[in-house]
Design a protein that fits this description.
Number of domains: 2
Helix content: 55-70%
Largest sheet: 4 strands, antiparallel
Number of helices: 21
Strand content: under 5%
Order of helices and strands: HHEHHHHHHHHHEHEHEHHHHHHHH
Structural class: mainly alpha
Number of strands: 4
Strand order of the largest sheet: 1-4-2-3
């Protein structure tokens, strides 16, 4: 087994076993959502597991990963995979995605406005936002294929070329480099406010209206700057799902440099193949492209220049989901209630908290990056170090997303079964599933808790490994690279413990 895979298996195994050894004699969960052992034992065990993984990685990892250093298997060598990747199959998938988009919009506009009987809230908030995030993080960037706004624009492009073969459905204005992905950050921040703060975010009509407005916004951006340029910079969900997909076990890769010659993005770094560039993948044919299996997290080691705005986006991904969890704790109540007495506006207080968390996370991350510079004895700038290590935080964002929303997808996700037969809430039974009864006991408190423990500890262990591999690239001297990771270890152990505390609060609050 390659060393990379061996380290992941050893580190993850140690991390997952460590917190559970102290609970061997603990009693099970009761009806009152009681933890089997005191919470502090879990918190200490989880932090110790992450620290142990650091020791394992520090001992066995001695060299930086090569540009093509991880093993991969081209799935397109299989007849089944080639059939799945056939243009006809991909076209059918895109049509299905657009039809789902139209269904959600129509249900939101003309269907019953109760969120319980209308398909729009369940599909958008549970199936799409939570479920698709899991798929992208573990299997691959499915959103690049399913994006209905991208598909609609592509069809409009094709129609325009039939009418004017020499023309192009885009003004091709030069995208200002200083903008980076800040437009995408603004869109993601608004979506986070809609999810976490805005009370009316589950109303079907609101969902449909905002989906249409976002389609107009995205279409306009692609019309002005070009489809792929806007998707890479201004489309919040392409950015979000794309960052998550760096952890996934599959990748798309173009192996012919000539295909990338016309790419609007710098997709080839240091002679390596073009990885994850869907613009080049659309143009590539036959043997020019690959659809590979790869080790979990290998996409986080890509040799590319990370911008300041991309760094900010990753920090916002992590901070917003953490704030969503913190809002369910008594700690947030202790802070927000006094402020609410002064401001007397729930939306404003929530927005203040939502905006302050990314700033707090950024400040904390920059502080530890400064410590990395000091401990390593390097002369690298703070910005360079922050951009070099930010991808190591993505596994933590994935882990917290999984831990925080696990019960939602298992319980509330079941609502999609009856809603498939009656999407508008009109009393239909199209597929015979309208009378399906939701099984609330499907996700017990015990299952949700241990899933959260495994996800958070496992995600931080992978983050430790990725950070160390990146350090070996940034600091070629092994001793300096190891010293540079002491601050990162403190940061990750601290966040592991903090995450578990947040996840546990709703359980403790309902215990007897």
């Amino acid at each position: 087994m390659p060393r990379y895979l061996t380290l992941i298996c050893l580190s993850t195994l140690a991390a997952l076993v460590w917190p559970l050894t102290s609970s061997a004699y603990a009693h099970g969960f009761g009806d009152k959502y009681q933890l089997p052992i005191p919470l502090w034992l879990y918190i200490i065990g989880a932090g110790s597991a992450v620290a142990l993984s650091f020791a394992v990685v520090g001992i066995f990892v001695q060299g930086a990963p090569a540009a093509r250093g991880y093993p991969r298997l081209n799935l397109l060598r299989s007849p089944v995979a080639r059939a799945l990747a056939h243009p006809l199959v991909l076209g059918i998938v895109k049509v299905f995605s657009v039809l789902l988009f139209i269904l959600v919009v129509l249900a939101g506009l003309i269907g019953d406005q109760s969120p319980v009987v209308n398909i729009a809230p369940t599909f958008v908030w549970i199936i799409w936002w939570i479920g698709l995030a899991y798929v992208c993080a573990f299997l691959g960037d499915l959103w690049a294929l399913l994006n209905p706004w991208k598909a609609l624009f592509s069809w409009a492009e094709a129609l325009y070329r039939r009418l004017d073969p020499e023309g192009e459905l885009s003004f091709r204005f030069s995208y200002p480099q200083r903008l980076g992905v800040w437009p995408g950050i603004a869109g993601f921040a608004f979506f986070a406010w809609l999810e976490i703060v805005f009370i009316g975010g589950s109303q079907p009509w609101t969902i449909a209206a905002l989906a249409l407005l976002y389609w107009v916004f995205t279409f306009t951006g692609m019309l002005l700057f070009g489809k792929h340029i806007w998707l890479r910079n201004g489309e919040a969900f392409t950015l979000f799902f794309g960052f998550l997909a760096r952890c996934a076990i599959t990748e798309v890769r173009v192996v012919d440099p000539e295909v990338c010659a016309r790419c609007s993005n710098t997709c080839r770094i240091e002679g390596a193949d073009c990885i994850g560039c869907h613009e080049c993948m659309e143009r590539a044919r036959g043997g020019q492209r690959e659809w590979n299996l790869r080790p979990l997290g290998a996409g986080l080691l890509a040799r590319e220049s990370v911008t300041v705005s991309q760094t900010a986006f990753v920090l916002m991904m992590l901070s917003t989901v953490t704030f969503d969890g913190l809002k369910e704790t008594s700690a947030w109540g202790a802070v927000s209630i006094p402020v609410l007495r002064i401001i007397r506006n729930t939306y404003l207080v929530g927005a203040m908290g939502l905006l302050s968390f990314p700033l707090l996370f950024a400040s904390t991350y920059l502080l530890f990056c400064k410590l990395i510079v000091v401990f390593s004895g390097s002369h690298r700038s703070l910005s360079d170090v922050a951009r070099s290590f930010v991808y190591s935080l993505i596994p933590i964002a994935v882990a917290y997303h999984l831990a925080h929303y696990f019960s939602y997808i298992l319980v509330q996700g079941q609502f999609i079964i009856p809603l498939m037969s009656d999407p508008f809430g009109y009393g239909w039974n199209l597929f015979g599933t309208a009378d399906y009864l939701i099984n609330i006991a499907f996700a017990s408190a015990q299952l949700a808790w241990f899933a959260a423990v495994f996800a958070i500890v496992g995600g931080h262990v992978l983050a430790v490994l990725i950070a160390h591999l990146l350090a070996m690239r940034v600091f070629p001297d092994h001793a300096a690279a190891l010293r540079s990771q002491y601050p990162m270890l403190i940061l990750m152990v601290g966040y592991t413990m903090f995450s578990l505390w947040i996840i546990a609060q709703p359980i403790i609050a309902t215990s007897g």
